[in-house]
Amino acid sequence: MKNKGLYIVSALLMIILGISDALRGIFTPLFTSVFGFSMSQVGFIVSASYLGNLICLLFGGMILDRIGRKRAMALFIIALALSELLLLLGQNYALLLIGFFLALGISTLLNTTINLISDSFSATKSLMLLNALFFLQGIGTSGSQLILSAYSSSVSVWNGILIAMAVLLVPLAIAVMKMKNEEGGNEKEKDGVKEQGVQKTEFGMIALIALTLGLYLIAEHGITNYIIMYGTEFVGVTAAAAGFALSLYSAGIMIGRLVLGTVVDKIGAEKMLFCSLVIATIAAVITFSTAILPLLLIVGLAISLVYPTTVSLVRKHAPATLGARATTIAVSAASILDVIFNAVFGKAIDSFGYGSSMPALSIALALSAVLMIFIIPRGKKQH
Question: How would you classify residue 185: left for phi > 0, otherwise alpha for psi between -120 and 50, otherwise beta?
Fold first, then answer.
């Protein structure tokens, strides 16, 4: 492995990002019962988070390409620390809204930045190492949910977690700034990442990857957001049983990133993604047609590599000087598609019911798999 110091910093950062991303859900009881905000106001926070993702990605891509990935990463880490401190003033609703807008937006930006620098970790195992980092982010999310849920109404725990994260982020930013490029050679480099890929931006291919990613996000977030209501309202199981199925789904994603990540570099990213999406589609169709919700474990395993690996494809189709901007724009476009679908999907459930609406998630996975076929040939030329 190359750039071990940067990888260790990235690993610690991903755990913190996982914790930060989970806070909104964990401390909802604090916002409503202690701070006195309504669920409608909490809903606006969720919308603000999505908006934060889009805006931070769009501006962040320009910053990454302009000042370089190392300096940009350090800047983003400091910005995240400041946004966590802003959340300490969360009893003021406007500041809570702005705090989550920034915290979750910058978190997604840092997540994407780590994806961008993953090529510098290894010449042959970069995707395996990248998916291992996303596994660690899942550990941060699930671990914080497990430990902190018991204190979901505690102001002191809320403040303590925010201060602890802000304090831990500062030395990580300093460590990134002090790191030297560890790659040699005469190739043009930017912060230790060799320039690769094409000389011209392949807009059509990037748009295709963004659409594939957007369809995947529709399915992933659709299962996460609606499976408990689907289980209780349509299948007729208890909330505990539906929640257990959702936990199996999440566990499948985490396990898959750790286990399947070991073979993705050998098989090839595009081929692995196609196989994963096909298996996920079949498993999802069986799950929704039989109403056997624990089968979501297989869906989770199958899709585990899709998000980080698909995002990593974008920079193959843009010059290195525009790689960050192309990646952040593609992720933003995929997120917009996801947001639009969710707005429509809720109305579809009201009109047609869960039984007729949930299979749309399987269709989204299937379409994503079909589109991946058109990405594979171009991807093969890049290897």
Answer: left
> What burial class does residue 196 get, using C-beta atoms within 10 Å of its C-beta: 0-12 exposed, 13-18 middle, 19+ buried?
middle
Q: How far apart are the C-alpha atoms of 72 and 49, rounded to whole Å?
A: 21
For the chain, the straight-line distance linking the first and the last C-alpha, in angstroms and rounded, comes to: 20
179: helix, coil or strand?
Answer: coil
CA distances 154 to 29, 83, 151, 326, Å, are 9, 20, 5, 41
* Alpha-carbon separation of residue 44 from 37, 82, 93, 236, 334 (angstroms): 11, 21, 10, 30, 21
Q: Can you tell me whether residue 189 is helix, strand or coil?
A: strand
The three-state secondary structure class of 192 is coil
Residue among 186, 171, 226 at smallest CA distance from 341: 226
130-159 pLDDT, tens digit each: 999 999 998 998 888 888 888 989 999 999
Which residue's entry shows tokens 């400041």? Answer: 82
Residue position matching structure tokens 């480099």:
189
Which parts of the chain register pLDDT below 70? 1, 181-197, 377-383
Q: SS3 for 109-120, per residue? A: HHHHHHHHHHHH
Looking at residue 201, what is its pLDDT?
A: 85
SS3 193: strand
Helical ranges in 179-268 per DSSP H? 203-230, 239-259, 264-267
Answer whether 64's CB lies under 8 Å from 325's CB. Answer: yes
Q: Show the DSSP H helices in the chain as ranges.
A: 4-26, 28-29, 39-67, 69-86, 93-117, 126-148, 155-178, 203-230, 239-259, 264-267, 269-290, 296-303, 306-313, 323-352, 354-357, 359-382
Q: How far apart are CA 54 and CA 337, in angstroms?
A: 11
Q: Which helix (H) or strand (E) holds 190?
A: strand 189-190
Q: Which two tokens stand for residue 1?
A: 């492995």
**pLDDT attached to residue 197:** 55
Both structure tokens of 225: 């957001």
